[in-house]
Amino acid sequence: MIPPPLSLYVHYPWCVKKCPYCDFNSHVSSNKITDKQYCQALILELEKKLPDIWGRRLLSIFIGGGTPSLIQPESLDKLLVNIRALLPFSPNIEITLEANPGTVDATKFTEFKALGINRLSIGIQSFQDNLLNQIGRIHSGQEAKKAIEISKQAGFDNINLDFIFALPQQTLKLLIDDLKCAIEFQPNHLSFYQLTIEPNTLFASKPPPLPVDDDVYEFFQIGQQYLHDNKFLQYETSAYAKTGKQCQHNLNYWQFGDYLGIGAGAHSKITHCQQQQIIRHWNHKNPAEYINQQSHKQVDNHQRILTKSDLILEFMMNTLRLKEGFNYSYFEDRTGLLKTDILPALQIAKDNKWIETRNSTIKATQQGERFLNDLLLLFMTEK
Prior knowledge:
The protein is of the alpha/beta class. 40% of the residues lie in helices and 23% in strands.
């Protein structure tokens, strides 16, 4: 087992408003907890978890949420200064901040750029006001366009734009209009997700009318082709990038790399080579309880060692989303298991035409991508 690249995820849990489709650990912002208090808790947690990652260099940092663009620059400055003091950075480290178009401010974003943020991920979702209203977004299409312009004026040249397809009342024409408008802004990365109804969301209790499955697949295929025709290379199920502009942080997830997550509800996956173990950690979701635990230096009991069946399923859930797939030696290096542990399931998948093997590389076929959940079921074993 070889230690893989290491990324840091920082969770900022507050939003202006909770979107009805969102199942992330996000909360409507309140004045009871300040950015200063929360960032201090993040620093305390990172200090506490240093022994697990001692001496390892950070490939990337991703500040997600929630809506991290709500954070005050002075609090973010203190946080980044402390992270730099505690962990060595790779020379070309990627530092991403997620942003909601309804919270983009020119002065603030200029300060974010000066602090070392070198990549933005802006949650556009659509430029169509009616569609944005359908999914409860706080911004308008015009505000989305203005947010991109402000980001560029602040000096950001590495920008991802998020879009959701299969929205209520969305047509194929509206989808292409959105993608066309996005491309006119010349981003170097686009995320193109299907709207799914997740448990414990408002949409789960009051589902909106959604396109039928055949229309959803048509949206995906035509959107995929449109992006390809405009020189965006698909490198993961929902991720498209210009050459050399793949998101290094998310790529590390999908390649079954390690990541340390700090913040309320954050998750971690850390490889311990000496013990030949991979351990998952997770934090309390409630921000106030999270801060209380960190300030009182309480022991973190939210962890478990991944079993053989866990490792196989989690590796496949990630790497089979990649267009380039994986090879056997990569599987063995990242999991500490043997290729014989997955050969029977791979053979069934191959018989079903869900995977293809070429030059020792295993990757999902187009049919396998469409039936990814069924493909993954083959790698579920009794624990």
